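Hi U.,

Before I forget, here's the chain from the pilot set. I'm dumping it here mostly so it's searchable later in email.
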Amino acid sequence: MTAKHTIKAVLARFSMRSAGRMKFMERYGTIPDKYTREWWDYIWYYYKWHILGTAFALFFAAVTIGQCALRINYDAEINYVGNEYYGDTAAVDKICEELSGIVEDVNGNGKNQVYFRQITVAKEGTPESMTEYNSGMLTKVALELQTGDGYLYLLSSQELDRLTGRDTDEIVFANPEEYLSDISRFEETAMQNGIPCAVKLSGKNKFLADHGLTKEPVYLAIRKIRERDKDKEDMIKKYDNAVRSAEYITSSEVGETE
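Structure:
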């Protein structure tokens, strides 16, 4: 799916939601004539939170799309998609600094630049999971998978299930046997359609502990190279940087260092 089609899908999604909400206006009594002052007052009184929520979600999607188009061409991007928020900027900078010593320069600017992107999604069944903000977060995850340059993913159990448990034959993540040695050393290997797709990092993982990423269980996965990117040298190099980062993060797994 191209970025253009993704944008259309996002806008259509929110337009349908808005239209669906407006169909239920009858429940609020007599509706004034359309486009009169009374009608606008009626709409704002009963639907202001729906309008504001939808406007926020559309704005958020537009900003995300703009960031995708204008962002720095990093040598490696790590997407942390989970249900806990790690908001310490200094800690994020430390992660990027540490991994910059592992990756190679892809764009030839003489710098090893790593970006750590955190996408926090509400836990299922909570009031927050029903908000437009959370819909925006889920849209951001979809955009990153479809159009982003990030290959390495650190995922909560819920978000891994969301991305791999869909009713589809599409395999999103590469088999960890292709980029990690001896995956039997991990306490759990996640599967999609009977094929390994991610490994669960242990509570003793030094990288997670050093950077405070311990509020929830974490699975490591690498997104497969898209068909359209398989002949692009920069995308292949970014995938290789994701493999280097994965090897580094998992090098302190339980059983290797006690």
